[in-house]
Amino acid sequence: MGICRLCPRECSVDRKSGQTGYCGVTGSGIYAARASLHIWEEPCISGTNGSGTVFFSGCNLRCVYCQNYQIARAETGKQITVERLAEIFLELQEKGAANINLVTPTHYTPEIIAAIEKARTGGLSLPVIYNCGGYEKTVTLKTLEGIVDVYLTDFKYMEKETARRYSGAEDYPETAQAALKEMVRQQGRAVFGPDGNMKRGVIVRHLLLPGHLKNAKAVVGYVYETYGDQVYLSLMNQYTPLLQVNEWPELNRRVTKREYDRLVDYAVSIGVENGFIQEGEAAGESFIPAFDHEGI
After folding, report:
1. For this protein, what does the record note about how its cofactor is bound (predicted)?
2. Going by C-beta distance under 8 Å and a sequence separation of 6 or more, which residues neighbour residue 252?
3. Which of 71, 91, 175, 271 has its CA 20 to 30 A from that of 32?
């Protein structure tokens, strides 16, 4: 690993020698909390059997409202080798996964590349999805060209102060813009297979936070005005207030139907056609799997 500058935090720590990065990870191995078929993604990602999702431990954002806080804080996770990760990819393929879905992978990028290459040599033929928080360095993303087929990225903030308050990343807006530009450069317009699953492309997710409709509209407006129908927008209302948001009382409620409807109406009004919305009561812990080392 050496000195780590994989993400915009640029901690410059040597995890291999026992130092801990902002991501919360220490050591030279890979830490993963779960590998399983996951059905709670966009339809073109989940497919019929589910997405072959690998949840990695640690995160370079560690948002205060994180729905996967256990792994974001690296509180759980089993250490594995590159060889074992390659085996996990092949096991997920054997189970009928629609793809290989890498969740919070940034701080393991070199190891993941090695594991994918090894798995492809061993017969892996599924699309690879890079499922990230949008806070990425373009130089790191460039190393994934030809490795990753689909970028499934969050775009959380267009407001610097909101990014600072909830993710400690005031530079998030411009960093996410640059990262998205590189993702689109690599993947171009989306390509779907005969089964309806995305084989190549970019999906931009935005999780609507309670009381933050203005920020959400700014994100949707920027993405659509910049890339049009070249990328897919996924507007999510599944925000669940967990215990850790007690210090941020404005986040200690669910998103209202009116808030979400206004966001969807805005997206439609500016011309968004390629996108996904969540209908009905989406918030809840059904979207939060048990990080019990299944499949690891």
Report:
1. Binds 1 [4Fe-4S] cluster. The cluster is coordinated with 3 cysteines and an exchangeable S-adenosyl-L-methionine.
2. 241, 245, 246
3. 175
